[in-house]
Structure formats: C-alpha cells, structure tokens
Amino acid sequence: MKYLPPSIEHLASRLFNLERRSGNDRSDSIVLTRRRIYILPTYYGVLFSMLLMLLLVGSTNYNNSLGFVLTFLLASVGLVSIIHTYRNLLHLKIGTGKASAVFCGSVATFYLQLEKPDSASRYNICIRFKGEPPVITNISDDAIAEIKLTRPTTRRGWQPLEQITIDSVFPLGLFRAWSHFTLPKSCLVYPQPAEQSLPPASKGSGTGKNNTPNGGDDFIGFRSYQPGDSPRHVNWKAAAHSNDLLTKRFGDNESSELWLDWDSRPDLDIEARLSQLCRWVIDAEQSGSQYGLRVPGTTIPLGQGSGHQHRCLEILALFELA
Question: Closest Cα partner for 18 from 207, 178, 141?
C-alpha cells in the first residue's frame, strides 16, 4: 500500500499540532479517542479523487446523466470509506504485556494487547516501529489480540519501548487513519556474555574456595540450551537428530562455592569485565555451584537458581562506575 510522502504527514502534524494532541502520556495503556486519530488520503485515494474530477468534468461537458450517476456513486463510496477507516481504530485500547530480559546483541521482544470495546470486528490493523515493516492483525470474535514487536539490542541496560504507530487503510485503501503513541515499557538487556571464560588475572580474597567458575572437567550430564551458553558445550551430535539443543554440564567437586569478583580481571576495560562476569555467572549457574557477586558498591551473597542468576545479571546490566 502506497502512502503519502512523510513530508506531507509532517506538514499536517505541524499545521494541526498533532504531536501535542496525540498525548504521549505515561499511563500503562491508552485509548484511541477521536483526538488521537488522524486521517489522510493514500496515494490511491489521491488518484481516486483525480478520477472523480475527470468524470465530473466529462459528464458536464457531454451532459451525460449516466456519467453524473457514476461520478456521485463513486464519490459516495469514497465518503463512506472515510467513516469505516476512521471507526476501524476508534476506541481501541492498547496496553503493554511482558518483556523478558535478553542478552545484548539479541532481539528484544515487546508484547502489546489490543482490546475493542464493542462487538464490531476490526480488520487490517497495522502496528510498527518507525522505519520498520508493520505487524498486521485482525480483531474479530476475540475481544483481545496480542501483538509481538521486536527490536535489536546494541547496549546493556533498560531499552525503552519506542514510539509506535498504529494505522489502517481498511476497507478500500483510499484513506489511512493513524495514531502515534508511547507506552512506559522497557526491556532489561544483560551484558553480552564473553565467548570464553577467562581465569582470574590474580587470586582475589574471598570466602569461597574459588573466585571464578572454571568448571572442571568432570562431565555430570545434560540440560536444555539457554541463551549465552558456549557453543563448545552444545551437544551438536544429538542436535542433528532432534530439534532440542542440549548443553553439556561439567562440575568440579572442589569448587562448590564461587565468588565472582570485579577485581579478578583488572586488565580488562569496564564493558569487557562486565561481559566476563556475565559469562562467569552463566557458567556458575550451569555447574550447580553456590556463587556470589562482588562489584563496586554492591555485593550479592552466595546463592543459586534462576532468581539469583537474574539478580546478578541485572546488577551487571545496570552497573555504572562512579
């Protein structure tokens, strides 16, 4: 579907102050009221208008009654399509869903929920980030539709949900109704794990028997693959016969408690050190060890489990060195 050039929409925004009226509030959900929805003809709508003008001029010149009938019939269809295009977005409620944490370099996934207040079906609703292809959905019998939007991640920390555009050209594609909105939703981005687990440059002081999860060479079994696992530990032979990826687990009976210390690798810069600590956290969780984390200003006591791992990775993701 061809839309009007972005410069025309930008000019309309300046003339009618659409950005102010669109209301970029910080509530968890928004409702597309009349003040939030705007409508302009598409490229085909402009051609349709020019066709109507030619038909009107030709019917007038030749005093053709059937030409007048056809002209006004098509014009009526165009006017009715404006109402249907506008009502296709009117009163839609848009809320946010879950946004699971990811590692830097992966794709952040945001979930949106679209709810209609009445029994009227909504068709060909497009939702997109700026410059991205749209995600198209219909809301028919179900009152709520779930939309998944993805964005690549390039840095650790909180990645906010950017401005989103919702639009529709239903039913004839002659007019486009749209609205811009921003919702207060963010995705936590962990540091990118280092490819290899480096040993500490020097032994640091700690209460555990070891400072880093070197892992040992004793094979103790398999577990399901998790993002950030080393490709060297993936059971590729089993993956050739199954769609499930398994990761080999190695353990060392002499290192059941581990302290992951910021000062263990003073030769690395900040981001490289965070990536290495991230790798150590993942390896320690995989080995089933009790591990703790020490970074400047924060100490997480020994623990284990997915909740403990998330807490350690969150500290690394939000770390700021004073």
Answer: 178
* CA pair distance 152, 158, nearest whole angstrom: 13
Q: Rounded to an integer, what distance in angstroms lies between the CA atom of residue 268 and that of residue 271?
A: 8
Whole-number pLDDT of residue 10: 59
How far apart, in whole angstroms, are the C-alpha atoms of residue 129 and residue 150?
9
Domain spanning 6-189: which superfamily?
A: Immunoglobulins (2.60.40.10)
Q: pTM, whole model, 2 decimals? A: 0.74
Domain edges within the chain: 6-189, 218-317
What does the block give as tokens for 60?
């007038």
- Spell out where 140-210 has E strands: 144-152, 157-160, 164-168, 175-181, 186-190
Strand partners, 126: 136, 167
DSSP 234: B
Residue 22 φ/ψ, nearest 5 degrees: -70, -20
pLDDT digits (tens, 9 = 90+) for 107-126: 999 999 999 988 888 999 99
Rg (CA), the chain: 29
Answer whether 114's CB lies under 8 Å from 144's CB.
yes
pLDDT at 206 over 60: no
Average pLDDT, the chain: 83
Percentage of the chain modeled with pLDDT above 70: 76
